[in-house]
User: Which sequence fits this backbone?
């Protein structure tokens, strides 16, 4: 009887863990699909689109997740087929470095101006 | 000194913005994919349209010749338009035309071929569109040129025209 109880608990735990891993896969899948541009739609991600192209991409992403490919490997596969444009979040390379660095440079430049002004005001007040 | 520098910086900034936006005006606002980029052909297993046997891509593209892969469907109106040109292309003995039947009803696809003729040396079934994604396709019709090194050297999005037919002939010479 004890062995039977133990087996039932083990089976339930195994089923639960499988359910959990399924949920995790769905989360990863949705995250990836939201970051893929539907190339034949107007401003829609593959996640939001019901087009033939989007449903094929959804199937591809599903099969790649089942093949245990990482998120980055799936993006790389799609980049190879369709170019960088298919991914909403561009990677940092020689073509996109301005896009990534310009906001930081502008922020630093603006910060430096504000800081300089503050120092100047402080000096004027102290005089 | 500071008062002199501010308008200069402002002028440079505004000129930069003007140049960027002015250049942007000439760009198309629709996405135009790169159709000349060399890519490897995908490896896959696909069901044959006539025999329903699963074939390996290595065997499909096994010969040392140019291959033309055409993605088509019976429900696609532009495919009907390009079909006579594909029939003309199929007469070329130096190339092999492979059809990829995209998300189609098999019965309708067979009726389409019976009605308009079969230009394809081999037709494969792409029931859910995943084979076409392997080629980097967006939809139907699309045509790919595969060279002797098994690289996709050119893709034509949309129906082929007389001009594209000439281009295919020139590339595959």
Assistant:
């Amino acid at each position: 009887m004890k062995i039977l109880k133990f087996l039932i608990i083990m089976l339930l735990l195994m089923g639960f863990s499988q359910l959990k891993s399924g949920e995790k896969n769905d989360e990863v899948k949705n995250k990836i699909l939201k970051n893929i541009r539907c190339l034949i739609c107007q401003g829609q991600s593959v996640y939001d689109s019901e087009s033939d192209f989007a449903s094929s991409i959804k199937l591809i992403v599903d099969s790649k997740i089942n093949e245990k490919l990482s998120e980055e490997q799936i993006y790389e596969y799609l980049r190879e087929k369709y170019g960088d444009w298919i991914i909403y979040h561009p990677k940092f390379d020689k073509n996109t470095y301005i896009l990534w660095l310009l906001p930081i440079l502008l922020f630093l430049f603006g910060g430096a101006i504000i800081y300089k002004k503050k120092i100047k005001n402080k000096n004027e007040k102290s005089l | 000194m500071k008062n002199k520098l501010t308008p200069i910086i402002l002028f440079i900034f505004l000129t930069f913005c003007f140049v960027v936006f002015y250049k942007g005006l000439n760009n198309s606002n629709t996405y135009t994919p790169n159709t000349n980029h060399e890519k490897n052909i995908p490896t896959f297993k696909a069901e044959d349209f006539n025999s329903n046997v699963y074939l390996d891509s290595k065997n499909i593209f096994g010969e040392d010749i140019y291959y033309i892969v055409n993605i088509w469907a019976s429900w696609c109106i532009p495919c009907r338009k390009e079909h006579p040109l594909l029939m003309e292309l199929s007469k070329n003995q130096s190339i092999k035309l492979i059809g990829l039947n995209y998300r189609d009803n098999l019965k309708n696809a067979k009726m389409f071929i019976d009605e308009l003729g079969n230009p394809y040396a081999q037709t494969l079934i792409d029931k859910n569109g995943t084979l076409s994604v392997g080629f980097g396709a967006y939809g139907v019709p699309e045509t790919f040129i595969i060279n002797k090194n098994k690289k996709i050297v050119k893709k034509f999005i949309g129906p082929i025209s007389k001009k594209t037919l000439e281009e295919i002939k020139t590339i595959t010479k």
The two ends of chain A are 91 Å apart (CA to CA). The interface with chain B takes residues 39-40, 52-53, 55-57, 59-60, 63, 80-83, 85 of chain A (CB under 8 Å). The CA atoms of residues 18 and 24 of chain A lie 10 Å apart.
